[in-house]
Specification:
The chain is an all-alpha fold and 168 residues long. It has twelve helices and no strands. It has one domain. Helix 2 packs antiparallel against helix 4. The longest helix has 15 residues.
Length: 168
């Protein structure tokens, strides 16, 4: 497959739709009847996040982003790890699509949609998973949240490299 054909394949396979198996898992994870239980780490949340990471592409990131803000530390850690794994699959030329998707998503999830700049600093952490999550916060619909995420990334030794190299 030539370079241009490979780029088109990557765009289609990673951002044009989740496979049915991934859609089923995401729907189960996001079921309103169990959502508060899942944010607290109840049930099969960790297993579902692992399964989504194994079968879904980057299109699942907007769905998973709120789990990076969950009450349960175990859920937050697993969600951020899964998000980093999926983010690694995003072709550079598709980063603007991911950015747009994150800015327009989650009117129904107050933790993400209603996030304030003060909340960004409380996220802390300096693992690769945390840095990718902070980088994705630079795609938030609020310019204040985006600016705070970039400020925090720039203040971290490993974040400076991440922020400079980020196309988000």
């Amino acid at each position: 497959m030539n370079g241009k054909g490979r780029q088109n394949y990557m765009k289609i396979s990673h951002l044009k739709g989740l496979p049915l198996s991934a859609q089923t898992l995401v729907n189960k994870l996001m079921s309103w009847s169990t959502l508060s239980q899942r944010w607290s780490g109840g049930g099969d949340t960790i297993a579902l996040l692992e399964q989504i990471g194994a079968v879904a592409g980057p299109l699942a990131i907007p769905t998973l982003i709120s789990f990076g803000l969950a009450d349960s530390a175990e859920v937050r850690i697993k969600a951020k790890s899964t998000i980093r794994h999926l983010f690694a699959q995003v072709p550079t030329e598709s980063l603007p699509l991911l950015d747009e998707s994150l800015r327009q998503s989650w009117g129904q999830v107050e933790d993400w949609y209603g996030m304030k700049p003060k909340a960004v600093e409380k996220l802390g952490g300096s693992s690769e998973d945390d840095l990718v999550f902070l980088g994705l916060l630079s795609c938030h619909r609020s310019g204040y949240v985006r600016a705070e995420a970039l400020r925090i990334l720039g203040s971290k030794p490993s974040g400076k490299r991440c922020a400079r190299n980020s196309n988000l």
